[in-house]
């Protein structure tokens, strides 16, 4: 007698438990972006925190890269359905960034803004308490430009479109303001475990 549903499974059960619904495991590292890599010069690179239109603080590359660095190890999940296990990232947590700026978050939402004019919205609470960072290293090496180096937002508990590559700043907003993909039908929050891919999910 054939036990339907188990025949042809090519993954061990522990893999299935780590995969959010609808995802498959990949070993490579796909590259997804809306256009070509922006040209970035570390000598002139700046990262800026803003409250609405008002700049709060900005950092040069050397200043940002000398802030306390934290390592994160774990799995990432893309809305296009690939997941990648056991990735290692180092960077500056948003907690440490706010400490350096000597502020607490002035609002409950923000927009991550990138050098390719990509934006994405994230609730501030999702970036605090070590849940997110400005990543500057992948697998111990500077992040390759194809994966958003020199610095990308990294929010691993949300779908990977929230992890804005080539990050140039974070803008606090008073309301939850849709970013590039959120304006085009993607979910405002994007929790992979609740399969929040598109508006209405
Ligand atoms: N600046 C910027 N960040 C971006 C994107 C982009 O087009 N521009 N694409 C997003 C999407 S849809 C995904 S799935 C991930 C892909 O990251 P990766 O190319 O490192 O796998 O980057 C996200 N961050
Ligand atoms: Mo994506």
Automatic annotation (TrEMBL):
CDD domains on file: arch_bact_SO_family_Moco
Domain Oxidoreductase molybdopterin-binding stretches: 35-181
InterPro entries: OxRdtase_Mopterin-bd_dom (IPR000572), OxRdtase_Mopterin-bd_sf (IPR036374)
Domain of life of the organism encoding this protein: Bacteria
Disordered: annotated segments: 1-20
Name the UniProt record assigns to this protein: Sulfite oxidase-like oxidoreductase
Organism expressing this protein natively: Methylobacterium komagatae
